[in-house]
Amino acid sequence: MTADWAHVDRYLVDTLVGHQDSGVLEANAAAGLPAIDVSPPQGKFLYLIALSIGARRVLEIGTLGGYSTIQLARAVGKEGQVVTFEYAPEHARVARENLDRAGIGERVDIRVGAALDTLPVLAEEQPEPFDLVFIDADKVNNSNYVQWALRLTRPGSVIIVDNVVRNGGVADADSTDPAIRASREVLELLAAEPRLDATAVQTVGSKGWDGFAYAVVLGED
Predict the structure, then answer these.
(1) Domain contains 100
(2) What's the confidence (pLDDT) of residue 108?
(3) How confident is the model at residue 2 (pLDDT cuts 50, 70, 90)?
(4) What is the DSSP string of 103-129?
């Protein structure tokens, strides 16, 4: 089925998404970055989510080469800002080149280092609340990232956690895979947290079988 899913993805890109950012993926591959970017249809979906909620401030945890960052930066517009965290300095360097080449580099603040070390620094700055948080980093810390996202958002903000289905492994309560166990943990956190209302959507495509969690920060009743 994966070949069929990839074939459909190609059709969707040709028909709806376009190839304007294919150079970003090529640059990432040339720099030796792992091929774990969101797919082009998923990138366009992120752009449309940010656009539809009128996001002006976006927090991204996991920059890689900046493919998803570019989509988010386009959505926030010239007056908006994306703050993105990347653990690896080389990945951040490639991302900066890609962002500048795309003409939206001034909208993006790349912070290098382990996110659990740099998120407290961001919180100390007392930034304006973020409208959207996209979490796509080391999976074992997803629950920690959601907790930080709650501190840095407001009622009505959206939190998206990528890669939670894990080729269907998320349904296996006996799995010892750390990423699967982390996916179950973060989904259970989203379900139990009274400040959030959430769902998860399975996806198939060129990246295989996976999915994302989508949560909205609630206000007081």
Answers:
(1) yes
(2) 98
(3) confident
(4) T-GGGEEEEES-HHHHHHHHHHT-PPP
Q: Rounded mean pLDDT of 165-180?
A: 97
Q: Say how many domains are in the chain.
A: 1
Could you tell me the CATH number of the domain that includes residue 61? Answer: 3.40.50.150
Structural domain range at position 43: 2-197+207-217
d(CA 149, CA 145): 6
Q: Where are the alpha helices (DSSP H) in the chain?
A: 2-12, 22-30, 40-52, 67-76, 89-101, 115-124, 142-151, 178-192
Single pTM value for the model: 0.97
Asked whether residue 202 is assigned to any structural domain, the reply reads: no
For residue 181, the model assigns a pLDDT of 97
User: Is 220 a residue whose pLDDT tops 80?
Assistant: no
Taking the C-alpha atoms of residue 127 and residue 57, their distance in angstroms, rounded to an integer, is 10
Rg from Cα positions in the chain:
17
CA atoms of 162 and 144, how far apart (whole Å)? 14
Residue 215 to residue 132: CA distance in whole angstroms? 10
